[in-house]
Design goal:
four-stranded parallel β-sheet; alpha/beta; flavoprotein; three-stranded antiparallel β-sheet
């Protein structure tokens, strides 16, 4: 029996991904190894990939999951330095993975998404992007829109009475200055979550006194 050729013709898919952290890297690998005829673009607000592991650099920042389970199953790393590796090592791992699998070519940095709107008539996503350096905006259209920004790097300061008149330095663990010096300073840490526990333990050898506060439960 002769086979009748199918009338279906595959068309290229334009895919736009917001976020070049762990989720964005995972999607880039899956899309490029499982799909054909795709046009993939990944945008991230930071100057480099890594997401939360690019941004979080506070003292003592580590992974709270054993290193050999906190990695891509398609890119195992047998050379972790410890059971709970520091943030810089995790970020280096993500960079190495992206380079080894040639995923960085899909990524554009210093870019934020200001609008993502679905158009029923064209069956396309309208995505408006803004360069955080120049402020210039650019519009792209996509068949698939993936929001992969995560939740661990959107921070805010708590509202504390007298905060605006406080003359000392105020920092957030999610936006720790690279040149921050705490030696011989009195430090108060608000909160007792994972970041605070790691931060206090790392800061104590460098200051005269530290104290942790948390809201009553």
């Amino acid at each position: 029996m002769d086979l009748i050729p199918s009338g279906f013709v595959a068309r290229p898919l334009k895919i736009v991904v917001i976020g070049a952290g762990i989720s964005g890297i995972q999607f880039a690998h899956d899309a490029t190894t499982s799909l054909s005829s795709i046009d993939l673009e990944i945008y991230d607000r930071n100057p480099s990939l890594g997401g939360t592991w690019y941004e979080n650099r506070y003292p003592g920042c580590t992974c709270d999951v054993p290193s050999h389970t906190y990695q891509f199953n398609w890119a195992p790393n047998p050379s972790w330095s410890s059971l709970y590796p520091p943030a810089l090592e995790i970020h280096k791992y993500l960079e190495d993975v992206a380079d080894r699998h040639n995923l960085r070519r899909f990524m554009t940095f210093n870019t934020v998404c200001v609008l993502a709107q679905w158009n029923e008539d064209s069956s396309k996503w309208k995505v408006v992007l803004r360069d955080v350096v120049s402020g210039e905006e650019n519009t792209v259209f996509a068949d698939v829109f993936v929001y992969a920004v995560g939740r661990l790097n959107n921070y805010k300061f708590p509202k504390i009475e007298g905060q605006k008149t406080f003359r000392g330095i105020q920092v957030h663990t999610a936006n720790w200055p690279a040149d921050m010096v705490v030696k011989n300073k009195r430090v108060i840490v608000v909160g007792n979550g994972a970041s605070a526990i790691q931060c206090v333990a790392a800061l104590q050898p460098g200051e005269s006194q530290s104290h942790t506060e948390d809201t009553p439960r």
